[in-house]
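Collaborator request log, item 7. Partner lab (contact: R.S.) asked for a structural prediction of Aminopeptidase N to inform their binding assays.
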Amino acid sequence: ADLIRLADYQAPVFHVPRTSLDVALYDDYSRVTTTLELERRADADPAADYVFDGVELALCRLEVDGQPWPKAQYDYDGERLVIRGLPERCTLLTEVTIKPHLNTALEGLYMSRGMFCTQCEAEGFRRITFYPDRPDVLSRFVTTIRADKARFPLLLSNGNPVARGEEADGRHWVTWEDPHPKPSYLFALVAGDLACLEDQYQTGSGRTVSLQIYAEPRDLDKLDHAMRSLKAAMAWDERVYGLEYDLDIYMIVAVSHFNMGAMENKGLNIFNTACVLAHPATTTDAGFQRVESVVGHEYFHNWSGNRVTCRDWFQLSLKEGLTVFRDQCFSADMNSAAVKRVEDVDVLRAVQFPEDQGPMAHPVRPAAYQKIDNFYTVTIYEKGAELVRMQHELLGAERFRAGTDLYFRRFDGQAVTTDDFLDCMAEASGLDLQQFRRWYDQAGTPHLAVQGHIEQGDYVLTFRQWTPPTPGQPDKQPLMMPVRLALFGADGQRLPLPDGSTETVLVLTQEEQSFRFPLHGQKEAPVPSLLRGFSAPVELDYAFTTEQLHFLLAHDDDGYSRWDAAQRLYHAAVTRLLSVPGEAVRAAAEDEAAALAPALRQVLARADDDAAAAALLLTLPSEQALADRLPELDVDGVHRAREALRAAIGEQLSSLWWQAEQNNTLAGPYRPVAADIGRRSLRHCALAYLAAAGDARLAGHLTVLFQQADNMTDQLGALRLLVHYGLPGADEALDAFARQWHDEALVMDQWFTVQATVPGETTLSRVQALLAHEGFDWRVPNRVRAVLGALANANPTAFHAASGEGYRLYADALGRLDAVNPQVAARMANACARLPRLPEGRRALLGGALRGLLKVPRSANLTEVLERILA
Ligand code: HT7
Ligand code: ZN
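Returned to partner:
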């Protein structure tokens, strides 16, 4: 596929003030008749042809101002329709047929369990009709949907229903009108027989909005949490950003077949069932939190994305980075801010940092792409959110809000750029953010090396920053970064700083910079608490001593800093164990555990204050995260060392783990509230240590927990430990689980994942069996991710098996999936991006498997990802 470059951006040749769609849905095809009012832009080249995107459309009719347009005056090559000689203003009518029932790529109009639905971002609309399918063409849409009334009683689109009627043959139609001009990627249509949970929301200005959440009738009892979350998000956006909802209806529809989490179509969000359905019996705590955050995210897009949208797809992070930042703050306010921050940083460091350090590295505002679908990445989303967070840190809450007020006011109804956003921040604050722009264009994780020493009675901190080269960007410039800092004295208290405070934000702009802090006669160097709240997305290199890390873990009042100190202690312990030969690992792990034990006991002793924070502090980094910090991925060594350390910690603190498990056993009905979620997570953390220790009482205990659980968090937690540690009762529990939940797709996804993540190479034959299971379906992305995504992302010892069997299995699966759903296949191929960090033998095996895949033609999506990994 051709490379599309930001530098080549050109404004559209024509406006489309009005778009009328007439979509007639039938069993084996749909007929789409589109009427576009076209107006050549005043500044456009008068000789330029009108070009419309349109992929795999069967063109039946093309008329201009009511007359057939001569065939010699247009060309269609299967992707683009070029019309020559159009008048400056005209009405274009096209009629096409499409095949939604054959659409397994889940882009454009497709079918999911008997209902019709759409996914248009980024370039799905061109699979429905001919259109200038680009985000900077905004139009008012009127949509009429026609379908069989008995099978599709519900016909939905964006905006408000304005007319309806009946036709011959038991068919009916509904017309929807959306008063807000929007780009085509925000168009949506749904036709089905769905149940609805309805509620209302009164906006700050007194308007009543009807809230409607649709799902299959069997799922009607799983919509309350989404509705609560939606109302909370609406109130939050009014309170925190002064932004109100702008239509009379807000609809969410749950669909089973969906490539991502959800989609913010104007007034008609379409959600993956996994991000909207929630019920204590079938949904884990993490699932409940995901629903809250995704419902918030899509709602917040109504302003950051829909009212103010992107000029082109290079600006994707304009809406995604800002909206992730907004949803992170919303979840932080709804739950525990400190815990939420650690969870977000954990994802960033575990997933985005590796992306930014590998062959898929790209800037938050990329300069070029082949398939935009491949750029819905953690860099665009999560690193993009960190850039917005840094602006918040640099400006402070008040000036940041002045900046967003200006942005939404100035650009309402427009398609703009990340530079426009930054200009508003600079203008509203008076800050010079020129250098900050580099963050958007420069890929890679910056390193920040810090050294401290005492000089003439002052404590001097020296910061040196650099960013390693990334593909296509060998040379990097210094960045503007906020470093939040406190200094701790030996008594565990924060020292006063020159500005009179005890916590400050240093703004770095140069490659090397020093800052002096008077110690007022104190002789000892303080312990620095650096990058508090993870104030910049960088790799911090500071040679903390073990004592300093224990000190910070005990005294630091910043949640992130304490967690980071614990992570550093665990990393160091596992790294030391890696060099211990086989038989001696157990004894060495006991020594490591003994050294960690006092700190862990202290965390457990204080766990009642914040159980969720305690669970995070007590959880070792994942195998992947540990391996990522080594010069080369040593998956087997890391697994052995980590398990040995977990076993030793489990044994040495055994009685405390049992105590934590008892203290955090909740009475009363399940509630998805932060305090209870925290206690359940601490309880399961304790159980996991006991499992690692091989505690003899555990299997029976877990079996009882599994059988008596009244919620999915407990039931699944017990099942996972039984199965992963091969405990007595594991097979029976798996069977019982499948019997109980065979009819609940989202729960069965978990059943597949539990089995695909059993550590060790033997799991590969199990995965083969899961792929052949009657419940496995290549057309359902959730199920594919549950097995293959879990294998590649959460089971390093199986995926990276020395035999190369994991790679072969995965490559075969990617090839098969690509024929069904290229977007999902390409996303899943990203799991192979650690290839350059593998030891030689494995690198050759994975490289061979991926090159083999490219021996036959593959989709442009998959090809782009594989070629970049193999480059
Ligand atoms: N803005 C939405 C993006 C999205 C998407 C992109 C490509 C292919 C399928 C997709 N489904 C949803 C999601 C969001 O960030 O809110
Ligand atoms: Zn989004």
